[in-house]
Design a protein that fits this description.
The chain is an alpha+beta fold and about 350 residues long. Helix content is about 45%, strand content about 15%. It has two domains: about 210 residues, Hypothetical protein, domain 2 (Endonuclease III, domain 1); about 120 residues, Nucleoside Triphosphate Pyrophosphohydrolase, CATH 3.90.79. The protein starts with a helix and ends with a helix. The chain binds a DNA duplex (11 and 11 nucleotides) through helix 2, helix 3, helix 6, helix 8 and helix 9. Belongs to the Nth/MutY family.
Length: about 350
DNA sequence: AAGGCGGGGCC
DNA sequence: GGCCCAGCCTT
């Protein structure tokens, strides 16, 4: 009856979210990809814009990749957008544009793992798959007092099995939404609302006052420091932009010409670097200002970013071969990482 | 099994 | 400042 209590809680407490008012697997897919490691409040606006621009999977499949990335700009984890685009193409090619309706076929699509395949199978096709995400892990580990780590292979089996057992014969699309929403709103990571929780008497963590002990801690990631010096090289109406490679972070996104150093540099030292001198050998340059030191934090890197403004003659801008020359009015056509976007917006 | 990959909200 | 989030892919 535990699942009934969670579903009952859900009916009274659920949020009205746009992707809950459809059974279109395409829309549900888009929402699930956006929601990976991303909170609901962040996703909503992106979801509307994306669906509005690409109402069907064919619209997405035939789109230009830069436009897809552009709609993703600021949402992070850009591989999600590239995989989404690739998967849309393969659905059009292999399934005539009709989203596959079995768990196994859905799981084959690029960017879709066990969680997302289960979610789509349950929400769009009402198939009995338990979608186990961070919320579900937290709820189950607290209720049952599971000490297994949630990301170990054995832990995944344990939680998947517990979730399916708990679902029992409840409607999959309702049960999954309910337990996920319960984790997001009631059984939160910090300061869970145990005082108003209908599951108190059945919850191992509450009974033993160990809410903070579950789920078990995952290993910490090592954070590395990197130092980025972005050169904003501009004339009256144009500036330079280059595209990042396909290794490293922010693959294929556009940014200002970059000098990366192993540690902090002073402006004087920066000007002395060979790279710098060779680029500007024949140009008259003028460092107009030197602003905005900031630290941009990624999940595994701290980027110490400094923007250096350099005004040059329009004729000199044309000397930079292999670097894009962009009109200040057309920045919207280039998907950029957050710090670049923010800097341009602040000018 | 571990590392890479964004950005924002919250305490 | 650290933790967490509707994870997945590559090595």
């Amino acid at each position: 009856m535990l699942n009934r209590e969670i579903i009952n809680w859900y009916e009274f407490n659920k949020r009205d979210l746009p992707w809950r008012n459809t059974t279109d697997p395409y829309k549900i897919w888009i929402s699930e990809i956006m929601l990976q490691q991303t909170q609901v409040v962040t996703v909503v606006d992106y979801y509307y814009r994306f669906i509005n621009r690409f109402p069907t999977i064919k619209d997405l499949a035939f789109a230009d990749e830069n436009e897809v990335l552009n709609l993703w700009q600021g949402l992070g984890y850009y591989s999600r957008a590239r995989n989404l685009h690739q998967a849309a193409k393969s659905v059009v090619a292999d399934y005539n544009g009709v989203f596959p309706d079995s768990f196994e076929e859905i799981l084959k699509l690029k960017g879709i793992g066990v969680y997302t395949a289960s979610a789509i199978a349950a929400f769009a096709f009402h198939l009995p798959h338990a979608a186990v995400d961070g919320n579900v892990n937290r709820v189950l580990s607290r209720i049952y007092g599971v000490s297994e780590s949630t990301n170990s292979p054995n832990g995944k089996r344990v939680f998947q099995s517990l979730a399916e057992e708990l679902m029992s014969d409840a409607p999959p699309h309702i049960y999954n939404q309910a337990i996920i929403e319960f984790g997001a709103l009631q059984c939160t990571p910090k300061n869970p609302s145990c005082d108003s929780c209908p599951l108190q008497v059945q919850c191992f963590a509450y009974i033993n006052k160990q809410q903070d002990a579950f789920p078990v801690k995952k290993k910490k990631v090592k954070i590395t420091d990197r130092y980025f010096y972005y050169l904003f090289i501009y004339s009256d109406d144009q500036f330079l932009l280059q595209q990042r490679g396909d290794r490293d972070i922010w693959r294929k996104l556009f940014e200002f010409p970059l000098i990366e150093a192993n540690n902090k540099l002073e402006l004087v030292d920066l000007i002395k670097t060979k790279e710098w001198l060779s680029v500007f050998k024949d140009s008259k340059l003028e460092i107009t200002n030197h602003i905005s030191r900031k630290v941009h934090k990624l999940s595994h890197q701290n980027l110490h970013i400094e923007f250096v403004h350099i005004k040059v003659e329009t004729s000199d801008l044309n000397k930079f071969e292999s670097i894009l020359l962009v009109d200040k009015e057309s920045v919207a056509g280039y998907p950029m990482p957050r710090p670049i976007e923010m800097h341009l917006a602040s000018l």
